[in-house]
Amino acid sequence: MYGVYKQTHTPTTVEHAVWCNFTSAQEKSLVVAGTTQLHVYRLKGDMENPVTVADDKAKSDQKSRKQKLELMASFSLYGNIMSLQSVQLVGSDRDALLLSFMDAKLSIVEYDPGTHDLKTASMHYFEEEEVKDGYVSNYHIPMVRVDPEGRCAVMLIYGKRLVVLPFRKEGAVEEAEMASASKSSILPTYMITLQDLDERLMNVVDLQFLHGYFDPTLLILYEPLQTWPGRVAVRQDTCCIVAVSLNIAQRVHPIIWSVGNLPFDCKQAVAVPKPIGGVLVFAVNSLLYLNQSVPPYGVSLNSIADQSTVFPLRIQEGVRISLDCAQAALISYDRLVVSLKGGELYVLTLLIDGMRSVRGFHFDKAAASVLTCCMSMLSPGYLFLGSRLGNSLLLKYTEKALEGDTAMLDAAEKVGEEPPTKKKKPDSDWMPSDVSTMDVDEIEVYGSEKQTGTHISSYVFEVCDSIMNIGPCGRVTMGEPAFLSEEFADSPDPDIELVTTCGYGKNGALAVLQRSIRPQVVTTFDLPGCLDMWTVIGTPPETKPQEEGEKTENSGAEEKPEGEVTKEDPPPDLDLTNSHGFLILSREDSTMVLQTGKEIMELDHSGFSTQGPTVYAGNIGNNKYIIQVSPYGIRLLQGVKQLQHLPFDSKGPAFVLASVADPYALVMSEDGQILLLTLVTDPYGSGHRLSAKKIDMQGKSQAITVCAYRDTSGLFTVSSPSASAPAPEAEKDAATPAPEAAVAMETGVDDEDELLYGETSAKPTGPTAPKEEVKPSTSVQEPAVKEVEPTHWCVICRENGSLEIYNLPDFSLVYLVKNFPTGMKLLVDSFQATSSASTSQSDKQGDQLANVKEILMVGLGHKGSRPHLLARVDEDLLIYEAFPYHLSQTYTMLKIRFKKVQHNLVLRERKSGKSKKTGDQEETNTQTANRIQHFRTFTDISGYSGVFICGTSPHWLFMTSRGALRIHPMSIDGAVTCFSPFHNVNCPKGFLYFNRGGELRISVLPTHLSYDAPWPVRKVPLRCTPHFVAYHMECKVYAVAASTFEMCNRIPRMAGDEKEYDAVEKDDRYIYPMLDKFNIQLMSPVSWEIIPNTRHEFEDWEHISTMKNIPLKSEQYVSGMKGYIVAGTVSVQGEDVTTKGRIVILDVIEVVPEPGQPLTKNKIKELYGKEQKGPVSALCGCNGYLLSAIGQKIFLWEFRNNDLIGVAFIDTQVYIHTAISIKNYVILADVFKSISLLRYQAESKTLSLVSRDMRPLETYCVEFFVDNAQIGFLVSDAQKNFLLYSYQPEARESYGGQRLVRRADFNVGSHVNTFFRVRCKIVDPSGEKRRDADTVAKRHVTMFATLDGGLGALLPMAEKTYRRLLMLQNILMTHMPFPAGLNPKAFRMLKHNHRSLINACRNILDGELLWKYLHLSVVERAELARKIGTSPETITEDLMEVDRLTSHF
Length: 1449
Hints:
Elements: E1 2-9, E2 16-20, E3 29-34, E4 37-44, H1 57-60, E5 68-76, E6 81-88, E7 95-101, E8 105-112, E9 117-125, H2 129-132, E10 143-146, E11 152-157, E12 161-166, H3 175-178, E13 190-193, H4 194-197, E14 204-209, E15 217-222, E16 239-245, E17 255-262, E18 266-271, E19 279-283, E20 286-291, E21 294-300, H5 304-308, E22 314-315, E23 327-332, E24 335-339, E25 344-352, E26 358-368, E27 374-377, E28 382-386, E29 392-400, H6 406-416, H7 420-424, E30 444-445, E31 458-467, E32 476-479, E33 497-502, E34 509-513, E35 520-526, E36 532-537, H8 553-556, E37 580-586, E38 591-596, E39 600-602, E40 616-620, E41 625-630, E42 633-638, E43 641-647, E44 655-661, E45 664-669, E46 674-681, E47 688-694, E48 703-711, E49 742-744, E50 786-788, E51 791-798, E52 803-807, E53 813-817, E54 826-827, H9 840-843, E55 852-860, E56 866-873, E57 876-884, E58 896-900, H10 915-920, H11 927-930, E59 935-941, E60 944-949, E61 955-958, E62 966-969, E63 976-982, E64 990-995, E65 999-1004, E66 1017-1021, E67 1025-1032, E68 1037-1047, E69 1050-1055, ...
Parallel strand pairs: 1-94, 21-22
Antiparallel strand pairs: 1-93, 2-3, 3-4, 4-5, 6-7, 7-8, 8-9, 10-11, 11-12, 12-13, 14-15, 15-16, 16-17, 18-19, 19-20, 20-21, 23-24, 24-25, 25-26, 26-30, 27-28, 28-29, 29-31, 32-33, 33-34, 34-66, 35-65, 36-37, 37-38, 38-39, 40-41, 41-42, 42-43, 44-45, 45-46, 46-47, 48-51, 49-50, 51-52, 52-53, ...
């Protein structure tokens, strides 16, 4: 059996964060890492309109503006990042990152400004056998720490050795000795064995570099003789610290300071910066401050510390907390923000006396926030909380003054005391207003001011931004979406959505995921024969000022800012200023014009040309005018009135293409001639008219396609930035062909239409907005937001494969890329090397080059600040992102480069024999149909802007102000021939599209999902920990098993046969343990609310171990089966009480709903709930019977008359935690003893063991792997592996079928707790049923969700395809460089924690690596395919096949 693994949703958890100068020396960025992902964010000013200038000046300063996170780059690595630190190396003004990987690998990576990518500076590998000391398993995370002054870094490996990486410093004394070595900034590493420093030095808990020492000094917190809470009475105070001075030149390491007998529960150390120095040691129940030559100071934080240590502690008044799982970050030399395991944020102030020694601590409870696993202080005033269990947050903190300071108090009131609604609900501007993916109180503000002798101030925290996280995904179930337009109901593929449990405690939630976009259809018209369509804005009312958010598709896709929906928006029916007035439909020989008001009706008499087809229609002149391009004429209209008509010779070449960048338009004829139209003020009249100018292209290769672009990002500039300007702004330059000016402005001023073009022949003056001069608010904290003057450019693709960028209006060449259709990884300006006139030499190559069908340059993101270049080359889609590059020397060329974006989309159609051509025959008949634009920009569809890609496999491209490019398919309606945004009374912020059947659908984007995520998602906060979720098919509701925390002060004990509870009385500083209290409740998929009165509570101490929807035999239904919600429970009450459990069978019944509450039509009814002889650990259905694992036995029950009657039983292994079945076969997963296969024989009513895996394996989850007639058993284990077993009694190694044979294995790199299976997709994205649908329907794709918030799929594949792709995989490993120098083959190898006497079987392909093939250039693809003896088309077809079969949800 062979398979391919494909990650379909990237992991979303955040585990490490560091704030450093990663991408530029002027601007710091936030680098976050989670699992295999590395993301780089920058802070930028708030996207929402800030306080208007009219307000008083106190508010418009920097305090009223929040910063947001913008994603600059993200990288995927072939290894899990275990530790992340940054350091500045000699000779670089940027910081390098130190990344460590299991078991003992360290990579130093830097940002490369020339390629906008990672480059590996050095790699260090310490996994030799002599370093391991004979151990085979390693549990020790390689911890990396960097000296605060950047002299060296250390990494602790295998828990017992330190690797020291010395860094070169300028003017170092030992230059002479090192002269022989190469001038690398990283000097040779060496290793210290900890036991050589001190033979007791083992079991390292934490290590940190101390501040204020002459040599780098490393503090190590360790526990030489370990103990645990139950043994504290005998052995306590076992932790010690030792400080080692690292003399790197001589390689001597004296111990300069040590302290012993610290409390046994010390968990971490935090170095305190100068001028205080020393170290804070966090223990679970106490907090200690230690410094050399200063007596130690410690406080107990609760009364448990009094019994567990004899270390002298003072009582810290007013707090009762424990510091296990706490995270801390310094915000100044004497203040830390501490996040506890429950999410509470405390500000800890160190009270110091004149001796610079700490004489007290002050805790101030500031807020309650997300459960944090890493914390980083950003620029002053900002704090980042990274989380695995909830959304990661960016917080802004402000210091609140105390009563004595009245002047400061005024300011504080303006900062902290916002209206309470604002505090509770963070403004989520990155999603539609009715998606609430944030918990209602992600953060609650307290703020108690306690005054002591020193300056203590309380802090106010507010949420500025959050990064969505759907991990950890515990259980996934598939359900039917509640809303689906009836147009899509008859698809042969089931329409399903995924619901996964995520989070923990108060961050618990359900995430509802859909892979593809399902439009909400308002209405459908049947209009056959339409080839293309456009919507244009009618005459805008003159009174209203131009709204910033509402430009249409064509005039301003570029300059339009992110159409954000903020909470304060007026209702949508009010802002119809820019609603579309006309819909223009082009047919083969005529054009239809519809007026779209409240009704849609055809216009008979208008200024539009209707006799022939239309090439293009759009708005120009700030949406005031409409331009219509026909094959032989161009018209300018205002509303329905024609202002100007430019006729052309009908015998000459027809126009085939037009593109607008207000106030310019470019029109191209079929022989490649280009006409530039400029909207100028009419010299004779009062209005505007178009002036046409033919562009002289003598001696150049013929133009194939053209695109006009209006840039508002400031990246398109020919001048380098001055040293003072941090951002790449457009500056005036002597040799600039098109003078640009950058005006520093507050974001509120709408000055995009003040067009500055310098002295051009015809001076275009669009309707201008009044220009306001505003002084930018300069502050230390946040840079003033710059407004960039829009500039205009023209992008041309030629027959010889060169891509050229010209500036408008004077058409001088500013950028040239040769051989553009080959799809290189990087587009670099090649103008310096060659003169632009020489075209003949590259013409020869033009024959083999692919054909560029369409090109689009578009500014995505906030206010178009991220220019992207999209191109259709033959059947491939190329997406490039522009990035600034200032190292080129020429003064006349653009200072940018383009980096290819990896998107993994295969948009081509399947070549299924002769049927391929029939569908396309009628399309290629006419010249115009061939030219239909597939890229349609939109600026405000439900608040999102981006590009829609038409064609056989339609996709949406979104980019919000978050800055991540999101690509979502829309396969539900098949192929889409053309698309247009549509903003109208009846369809606010919607869109129109034609499907292949010629139906025009007027639709809106459903806003209950957030599309700024890898998959469209909705996060439903539960505020308790969800454990299981199951979908009840008959009633279409979800059952959710969840638990809340309750304080426990009772201890159960057995008195004879009776259970008694002893109440425990402790003092008021004692922290009582928390117990999980379980319940099951129903949730409606319509509103994603808990259905009232459906909560089924479980007893105290009773844990739900499993919950499923199981079909059992029932006489009520024709099918003889009925679905019940069945739960198994375990009562755990300590080691003195026998563990029992229950099987609970619940029925979901339909009742008459209560008035005004339509959801209450469902209720839960308990049918059975008797106690069993042991703990119930697993349940599943088997042929209508209920199979349960109770203790070490498996029972099969029949459910009759609300009672369970035993049918069969069998004895098993240690602890069965999962059971699944197909027909009468059952797979059991044991927690230590791998899996077993059982069979139930109905005629003899027996359960028997068929086969099992004899090797020990810690299984996490199991599922079937179905390929036609073959079946395999897929297991995930504790080492993050997948193992595939099969039952093959004829194979020799199965010993006649007693043993299961391992067929494949693969390392995923994440823990997988849940699998689910679905039939392969039998409908192509183009909407046609596959020809091999019968065989495909018998293959299942096994999908899974990980604890890191990722989703993936495993697909069975034929051996022939497997062998071909395996050769490709092997050749890709040596062909491409991988970030951080990691090896994909090593990462995907089976991981063991003990030596096993079996070789790895592999047999599962790594889709993550294979899909990189699509990212290569055409030349590389052809060469690799030639090496393995196949064609690039075959490989692409194979990859596309996998994509198409798994494109569910």
